[in-house]
Design brief:
The protein is mainly alpha-helical. The protein is 84% helix and 0% strand. It has one helix spanning 2-17.
Length: 19
């Protein structure tokens, strides 16, 4: 669960940065 949350957070950040 924690890993999933972390992945989502990172993915969201990367998406915002266009990565």
């Amino acid at each position: 669960m924690i890993l999933k949350i972390c992945e989502t957070k990172v993915g969201s950040s990367a998406k915002k940065n266009g990565g």
